[in-house]
Design a protein that fits this description.
This protein is α+β, with helices and mostly antiparallel strands. 46% of the residues lie in helices and 14% in strands. Helix 3 packs parallel to helix 7, helix 7 (256-284) packs antiparallel against helix 8 and helix 7 (256-284) runs antiparallel to helix 10. Residues 14-132 form the Acyl-CoA dehydrogenase/oxidase N-terminal domain.
Length: 399
């Protein structure tokens, strides 16, 4: 894998065609759409703003493209999906998260399709695949982040259903969703000494009595995409139990390794864009004597280090994805990739801000936004410290 700010994928003509068509849509039609409506990363988007992108992306074959053919997808490899996610990240599009289905769509639902009953597929998940409905994933609580098993949301059996009570936070896509995939602890489980608590997963309609979608905290990126899901004796029918009772945590965490890896290409793409913007800045910005900024050796060294770290992060991630596609166990490599991508991307963006100077500190400038966005990745989907714990654990059991 050679270094490039615009990969060609010449070795895979089918992927090259997909990437080319995606770039055309992102840089052309979608860019024009965003400009017409004045969307920025700080815009308070509505469901009505996203639905046209879901539908158009579905028409173009991108929405849910990773899914099996039976669901209208192309059964992409993890590597191919990563390449598309990287391009979305590199485009800088405000609505890019809605093109492949990250914002309430098929990528947000994850692989729960394989756990769903025919009724759940028909009522909930296939409409998501078609861009007709949207979902969010509600796992995190105020005191249950890295240690999700500390959650206090409980599910009590009630006749032929359940009653859920609790408060979920950071439910991404919550402002646009019709239903949530909620994980709750079964009431009474884990109370005996030595007994582990049992968790179950439920499909919860967000307009159900006892369910409130509250405005969530605004992250440092400034994007308004989070909600709190507040459950107060909310009744959920037994038909909405996802998988088996007591196995909800397995469903929630079952594809963590894959998710951890697939978050990396999006960050790599955003970092790639930051490097491209920085190189453009160094070529066009004049310093004393009329020379471009890039003529200064100190700046040359900075961009050299930035490009080298990006190359290393990308190579590591795609090597792990290729191994995953071969069916190999890559749990430790996923921890390594997430750690290195998060930390190196932050260093790259820090240098990008430095090179842009005052403009890089100005709200509304893309580099300033990317810096805030990338900083979050050192915490989201598992802190860097959690990744190091996972790496160390993997090494301890390595032969």
């Amino acid at each position: 894998m050679t270094f490039s700010l615009r990969p060609s994928y010449a070795h895979d003509p089918e992927l090259a065609d997909l990437v080319d068509r995606l770039r055309t849509y992102l840089d052309g039609e979608l860019a024009d759409h965003e400009k017409r409506h004045g969307f920025t990363h700080a815009s308070r988007l509505t469901r009505a703003d996203l639905e046209p992108v879901w539908r158009r992306s579905r028409e173009l074959g991108f929405y849910g493209i990773h899914l099996p053919e039976q669901y209208g997808g192309r059964n992409l490899s993890h590597t191919a999906l990563a390449a598309l996610k990287e391009e979305v990240g590199a485009s800088g599009r405000v609505l890019g998260h809605s093109v492949l289905g990250d914002m309430g769509g098929p990528l947000r639902a994850g692989d729960i399709l394989r756990h769903a009953t025919p009724y759940q597929l028909e009522r909930y998940l296939l409409p998501v695949v078609r861009g007709e409905r949207a979902c969010c994933f509600s796992l995190t609580e105020t005191d249950a982040g890295s240690d999700v098993r500390a959650m206090r949301t409980t599910a009590v059996r009630d006749g032929d259903g359940y009653r859920l009570t609790g408060h979920k936070v950071f439910s991404s896509a919550g402002p646009f969703a019709d239903f949530a995939i909620v994980v709750a602890r079964m009431a009474g489980s884990g109370e005996e000494e030595g007994e582990k608590p049992a968790f179950s997963a439920f499909l919860v309609d967000l307009d159900s009595p006892g369910c409130t979608v509250a405005e969530g905290a605004t992250p440092m990126s400034g994007e308004h995409i989070e909600s709190d899901i507040v459950l107060d004796d909310c009744r959920v029918p037994a038909a909405n139990l996802l998988g088996e009772e007591g196995r909800g945590m397995r469903i929630a965490l079952g594809r963590v390794t894959t998710n951890r890896l697939l978050h990396c290409p999006s960050v790599i793409g955003a970092t790639r864009r930051a490097l491209a913007l920085t190189l453009e800045r160094t070529r066009t910005r004049k310093v004393a004597g009329g020379q471009p900024l890039l003529a200064l050796q100190s700046v040359q060294h900075k961009v050299a280090d930035m490009a080298t770290e990006l190359y290393a992060a990308r190579s590591m991630t795609y090597a792990a994805l290729a191994a995953l596609d071969r069916g190999e166990e890559v749990r430790t490599e996923a921890f390594m990739s997430k750690l290195f991508v998060a930390e190196s991307a932050f260093r790259i963006l820090d240098q990008a801000v430095q090179i842009h100077g005052k403009e890089g500190l100005t709200q509304g400038h893309e580099i300033e936004f990317l810096f805030r966005k990338i900083r979050m990745f050192r915490v989201l989907t598992g802190t860097s410290e959690i990744q190091r714990n996972g790496i160390a654990h993997g090494l301890a059991f390595m032969e």
